[in-house]
Specification:
It is globular and about 55 Å long. It contains nine helices and eight strands. The chain starts with a helix and ends with a strand. The protein is of the alpha+beta class. Strand 2 and strand 3 form a beta hairpin. The chain has two domains: 62 residues, Arc Repressor Mutant, subunit A; 116 residues, Arc Repressor Mutant, subunit A (Orthogonal Bundle), CATH 1.10.10. Helix 1 packs across helix 2 and helix 4 packs across helix 6. 50% of the residues lie in helices and 17% in strands.
Length: 199
């Protein structure tokens, strides 16, 4: 019984740190699935909800929507502003995930650094120094990796797997307006834009 409680505590801590994936943390994932009810009750005390997508293999915490009249609690899940290029990159990667799912077959989306550079280049005005442009793209890639939406492929510094948690943050309604948003991005290339993670 002690071991079970200890492991459940490890799962809770892992969730507070970020997204839990079935493929990277299989032991924690199994305990999470076996303890879902208890975990939901526990995080609800601090105003959070446990979101689990078994099909895609990820779980994360989000803030419980506050009902009218409820006392506001301090924020536990931080909202981190994203720059225009980061928002753009997430939108383009989400579209690539949709295309992959539509084709069927392969379930993992792997993109190279060069592919990412080519994807975002279309939305920026010409005349930018190439080396400087690539360095800036690298900075945005690193930010997306830090946020957990991509991970570097082992043994390949130039390749990344797009994590399916992105689908939870760029939802179907937002995706339905994606083409309009991308046209707006193209029209206002280089203008600072932002969104917030988890919004």
């Amino acid at each position: 019984m002690t071991d079970t409680k200890l492991t459940r505590s490890h799962v809770t801590i892992a969730l507070f740190k970020g997204v839990v994936y079935s493929d990277t943390d299989p032991a924690i994932w199994q305990v999470l699935l076996a303890s879902t009810s208890e975990l939901r009750e526990y995080v609800a005390v601090v105003g959070l909800e446990l979101e689990i997508n078994e099909a895609e293999g990820y779980a994360y915490l989000r803030e419980h929507p506050r009902a009218e009249g409820d006392q506001e609690l301090p924020r536990l899940v931080s909202r981190r502003p994203l720059s225009y290029p980061q928002s753009l990159l997430l939108a383009l990667l989400r579209k690539r995930l949709l295309e992959l799912d539509t084709r069927g077959g392969e379930t993992r989306l792997i993109v190279t650094r060069d592919e990412i550079v080519d994807m975002v280049r279309l939305f920026f005005a010409g005349g930018t120094n190439e080396a400087k442009f690539v360095d800036l793209v690298d900075q945005h890639i690193n930010r997306i990796v830090d946020l957990g939406f991509m991970r570097r492929m082992r043994g390949r510094d130039d390749a990344f797997e797009v994590r399916r948690i992105l689908k939870a943050f760029v939802d179907a309604q937002w995706l339905g307006e994606l083409d309009r948003k991308l046209e707006a991005y193209r029209a206002h290339a280089g203008a600072p834009k932002g969104t917030e993670e988890g919004s």
